[in-house]
Backbone:
């Protein structure tokens, strides 16, 4: 197969227009003049910085999962729930479909995304492709749209306001961890990992 | 030649997954998005290399119609039951929004209304519009249609909001006979609607908006 096209070309994924890539200055965004979408933006975070962000996100995600999210009080009785408590309750309440959806989009996919990023960036920091690089990059591409932690944070906020009408509401550490996770997700939203493809293969140990 | 050449016209293919630009050596296959090309593999990431997403329009229509069919019970059936000692209260999506507006926060009610009603309707409307206009090779409002697609792609998954609200309240409000929240079938239909419409927008190939026109710009 012929791969002979010069690598400095970029094709707009929304309208198929071909452009020559040019180096971007810090903060600069290349826009497609035909369909006005973003072609690429300057990537100012190097792999080491990204790895630091991912590790932080993992620690915060751990907190978000082990601590209760909110506690409700009613006449001296208290009830609190963690993410997994919520997922298991939905399963028992005959909403298995929702339970599986929540487990996937709030736990397994975010976890997979962070694990993949951590693995790829750990090696990228050393200047090489990780073992299984291509397969994991493709996997990351498909997992990406199905992580919904930031939607859950807004959902928790709505739940608190709804519950507040009937109950005493006490926010727990889990909700703060989720808030912090949302900040990290936002920081990460402009990150484009396509440059990692330029990394050389790891040399075999003789 | 146009000052802005398109990959399909100059024999290039960009990989949907990794973005690598390759020379198209497979020759000509159908361009209308409903032909399934014999796919080459991307030399860099191994994904199937197609000029357009395969069977884009048929898949978009199928998923969109399925999503719409499930959206009807999602709205008609109640999504959540609040049971206390002397009272059982079933809420639909819209009655939940109204209650939030009256008793909680009008601002949040607007956000929930946006995520649960406006965003799904927007997805059905926009994707149907894009599919029809692409099928007809319409030259109407190209840039605006391209922007609509990106909007749908960006906000689509926020519809899950109500599903998570019901889940969290179900997990939280467990005071035995005193007060309980239970999920009702509407929420299952709604969750499936969100997944199907997300798949529909992923199946649509926005490059079809720009295809099939002889003259350019």
Residues:
């Amino acid at each position: 197969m012929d791969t002979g096209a010069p690598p400095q070309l970029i094709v707009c994924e929304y309208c198929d227009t071909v452009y020559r890539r040019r180096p971007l200055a810090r903060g600069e965004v290349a826009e497609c003049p035909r369909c006005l979408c973003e072609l690429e933006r300057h990537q100012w975070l190097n792999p080491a910085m990204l790895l630091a962000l991912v590790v932080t996100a993992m620690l915060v995600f751990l907190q978000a999962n082990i601590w209760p999210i909110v506690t409700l009080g009613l006449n001296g009785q208290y009830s609190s729930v963690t993410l997994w408590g919520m997922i298991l309750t939905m399963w028992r309440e005959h909403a298995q479909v929702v339970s599986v959806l929540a487990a996937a989009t709030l736990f397994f996919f975010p976890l997979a995304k962070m694990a993949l990023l951590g693995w790829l960036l750990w090696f990228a920091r050393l200047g090489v492709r990780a073992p299984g690089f291509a397969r994991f990059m493709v996997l990351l591409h498909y997992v990406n749209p199905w992580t919904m932690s930031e939607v859950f944070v807004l959902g928790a906020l709505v739940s608190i306001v709804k519950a507040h009408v009937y109950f005493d509401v006490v926010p727990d550490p889990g909700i703060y961890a989720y808030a912090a996770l949302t900040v990290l997700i936002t920081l990460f939203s402009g990150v484009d990992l396509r440059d990692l493809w330029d990394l050389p293969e790891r040399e075999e140990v003789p | 030649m146009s000052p802005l050449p398109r990959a399909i016209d100059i024999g290039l293919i960009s990989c949907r997954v990794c973005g690598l630009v390759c020379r198209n050596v497979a020759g000509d296959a159908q361009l209308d998005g409903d032909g399934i090309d014999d796919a080459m593999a991307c030399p860099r990431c191994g994904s199937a290399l197609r000029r357009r997403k395969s069977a884009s329009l048929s898949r978009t229509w199928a998923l969109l119609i399925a999503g719409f069919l499930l959206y009807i019970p999602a709205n008609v059936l109640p999504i959540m039951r609040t049971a206390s000692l002397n009272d059982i209260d079933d809420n639909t999506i819209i009655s939940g929004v109204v209650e939030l507006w009256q008793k909680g926060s009008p601002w949040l009610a607007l956000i929930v209304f946006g995520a649960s009603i406006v965003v799904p309707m927007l997805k059905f409307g926009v994707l149907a519009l894009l599919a029809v206009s692409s099928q007809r090779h319409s030259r109407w409002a190209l840039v605006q249609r391209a922007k609509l697609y990106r909007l749908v792609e960006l906000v689509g998954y926020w519809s899950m909001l109500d599903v998570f609200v019901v889940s969290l309240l179900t997990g939280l409000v467990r005071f035995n006979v005193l007060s309980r929240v239970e999920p009702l079938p509407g929420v299952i239909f709604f969750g499936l609607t969100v997944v199907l419409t997300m798949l529909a927008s992923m199946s649509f190939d926005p490059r079809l908006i720009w295809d099939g026109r002889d003259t350019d710009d």
